[in-house]
Amino acid sequence: MRSVLHRDRVRVRVLRLDRKGRPEGRVLDILERRKTPIIGRLLHEGGQWLVAPEDSRYGQDILIPKNATASAAAGQVVSVELTEPPSLHSQPVGRVVEVLGEIDDAGMEIEIAVRKYEVPHAFSPETLEQAAGLPDKLRAADRKHRVDLRDVALVTIDGEDARDFDDAVYAEPYRAGRGKTLIEGWRLLVAIADVSHYVKPGEPLDEDAYERATSVYFPRRVIPMLPEKLSNGLCSLNPGVERLAMVCDMVVSADGVLHGYQFYPAVFCSQARLTYTEVAAMLGNTRGPEAQRRSDVLPHLLHLHEVYRALLKQRAVRGAMEFESTETQIVCDDNGRIEKIVPRTRNEAHRLIEEAMLAANVCAAEYIAAAEHPCLYRVHEGPTPEKRLALQNQLKALGIGVHLSDDPKPAEMAAIAQAVQGRPDALQIHTLLLRSMQQAIYTASNNGHFGLSYPAYTHFTSPIRRYPDLLVHRVIKAILAGKRHHITASSKTRTPEFRKGGKPQRAAKPMSQEMTLWEAAGGHCSANERRADEASRDVEAWLKCRYMREKLGEEFSGTVTAVAGFGLFVTLDALYVEGLVHITELGGEYYRFDEARLELRGERSGIRYGVGTRVRVQVSRVDLDGRKIDFRMVREGEGERLERPRGAGSASSELASVQEADRAIKAAARLHKGAGKATKGAADTSRRTRKPGPARPQPKPRTRR
Q: Are residues 522 and 561 in the same domain?
């Protein structure tokens, strides 16, 4: 391994299997070396310049000749290009190609993340030139062959900190037919910014958008998929300004069934820019100050709320799943450091918009499937047979005697989630259900959406920030025109990476050349979506570590949110920050990991720590480079007791008595020769119970960092 670096392509020969059945091999040949720059800290040690990579998967430091430092100072963050690859007997050598600045500079964590995960963050000159040539407002030619909706009270509803406005909604009562054919309900309009009118296939704008595939959101900064001229200008549905849109016009019955829909290009003018908080207040009190201030749109909001309630009924009929979770929002100061972390609460307005967008996405998928046109579907598959069996065993261990069918349906999972509401371990069970399902991906094969319980589902509602939505718009326009949209191969297609033993989620099937191109585009968009998520999480983890570094030694109350064989992950109540309590910090006894129950259980005392257990911890260590926070248990025995004899004392007092007994046994061992074997047996038990090695090993100390 000394001659290779992370992301090199190699040829390997499997030599043997280890005792766990895992293959071991040897690198025979290096097929391709990645030429992407490596980000790290420039250090000067013993007269030698070197760069310690920011990404821990690069296992070697990079030597820098003294004339190749580009005037960077020791301690600064730099980007390095390799000039000599590593070999069995020498370290890699490189040169500094970019100096990013000091590690404490505001926004440095984002600069590191976009380069570490290779997120494209600069538009090409051709793209910027094309964007600059776009008009500032609509022209007469843009309005041709479009439905005029400028007199319809469409409004946008987004968060206070929203950075793009790409969807507008409107609803009104609807009644048609008579007798048995009578339909009473609502007409629901979802208008989405018509990005495809400005971004054409093969143009520089399209090539850059495809390469990015998605916008990347960081605290205080966004790396958009499209230039600002489009994302905040022509395609942003600002109030009082004419905009082009693709409209999904739906008829929803009183029981939430979609009785019909149509798609058409339109021109409209948003009547108001509303926020979730504002709309929730208006719906909660129709005579309050917010409602009086927006009296012109209040009747339409009430109709939207009625449509939402109807769609919600149908959601329950379908058996769609909804799990408990707490989303957080990082609030930063002017220097880009965390000021506070607050929970992001979902209100009726959030759910209203969510149901409207789901309805439009479903209509788009059905429309494309009915036309038998290739497209990218948003597919979420249920548990594999292996995961279904594991979930069944875990539920049984938790005392939930629910039998899952061989091919579980979403309604079965939703029923379990509903049945455990109110239990102290409800969060733990919801976590098990979520982990049993596969990750959602973009693919040309329509396999339905398991979580939402839809036979066909796609993404139509965010073409400003997601490339698959832009493709869906192009396909719908082609179908409306009686044509077909043909996708072309791109040199910028990014092959998905599968880490930690991961495997491709679907086996390759024989397909036509066109379907192969669609499948490749789906894999590219899925991979870049994961890349964006990883980059965002990396920045948030860095900010949280920096935030917690100032709280070393402080004590907090928290809740166990995950359990592994090497310790507990605890989320602090007040700060919403997660850290690890290593198994060695749990006290003076041996803990066994129960994989079925997802808990650690003390062998002698019976104390157990599972998801949902309340604990008191102290911040003991913060590793900024490794993005890790470690806690120490300060109040032992707050875990639940597995079996507690009648009249027994508290968990902590019993643990103290166990420790006292241990000391007595050790004292007796020094007096009696025969006690040596017993002590050795106890040590063997220790090694056995702690056998599940840390999946999160502590990094080797590097004094220079």
A: no
Q: How far is residue 634 CA from its own chain's centroid?
A: 32
Write the CA distances from 187 to 32, 173, 176, 306, integer angstroms: 57, 6, 11, 11
In the structure encoding, which two tokens stand for residue 357, read together? 């967008």
b/e per residue 29-53 (b: at least 16 CB within 10 A):
eeeeeeeebbbbbbbeeeeebbbbb
Range with the poorest average pLDDT among 207-211, 297-301, 508-512: 508-512
Q: State the sign of the Cα–Cα–Cα–Cα dihedral 450, 451, 457, 459.
A: negative
Q: Is 575 found in the same domain as 463?
A: no
User: 411 near 319, Cβ under 8 Å?
Assistant: yes
33 in the same domain as 168: no
Lowest mean pLDDT among 306-315, 327-336, 367-376, 453-462: 327-336
Nearest by Cα to 325 from 433, 448, 462: 433
Q: Is residue 135 part of a domain?
A: yes
pLDDT of residue 637 exceeding 60, the answer is no
Q: How many domains does the chain have?
A: 3
- Claim to verify: residue 527 and residue 567 sit in the same structural domain: no
- Per-residue pLDDT for 178 more than 80? no
First-last CA distance in the chain:
23
Structure tokens at 166: 């790409």
Residue 653 sits in which domain range? 551-689
Span 375-384, mean pLDDT?
Answer: 92
- Pick from 448-462, 601-615, 663-677: least confident: 663-677
CA distance 523 to 359: 25
Contact assessment for residue 39 and residue 116, using Cβ atoms and an 8 Å cutoff: yes
Phi, psi of 96 (to 5 degrees): -75, 125
Structure tokens at 507: 């086996």
**Domain at 35, CATH number:** 2.40.50.700
Q: Quick one: pLDDT at residue 635? A: 62
* Whole-number pLDDT of residue 50: 94
pLDDT at site 226: 95
The DSSP code for 67 is: G
Domain membership of residue 211 (yes or no) is yes
d(CA 678, CA 699) in angstroms, rounded, equals 34
- Find, among 580, 547, 576, the residue nearest to 566 by Cα: 580
pLDDT digits (tens, 9 = 90+) for 389-441: 888 888 887 778 777 888 888 888 888 888 888 777 777 788 788 888 888 99
Regarding whether 672 and 578 lie in a shared domain, the answer is: yes
DSSP β-ladder status, 156-158 and 273-275: parallel
CA 556 to chain centre: 27
- What letter would DSSP give residue 383? -
Buried b (16+ CB within 10 A) or exposed e, 315-329: beebbbbeeeeeeee
Interacting residues of 499 by C-beta distance below 8 A, sequence separation 6+:
none
Nearest partner of 466 among 243, 135, 167, judged by Cα: 167
Residue 509 is predicted with a pLDDT of: 54
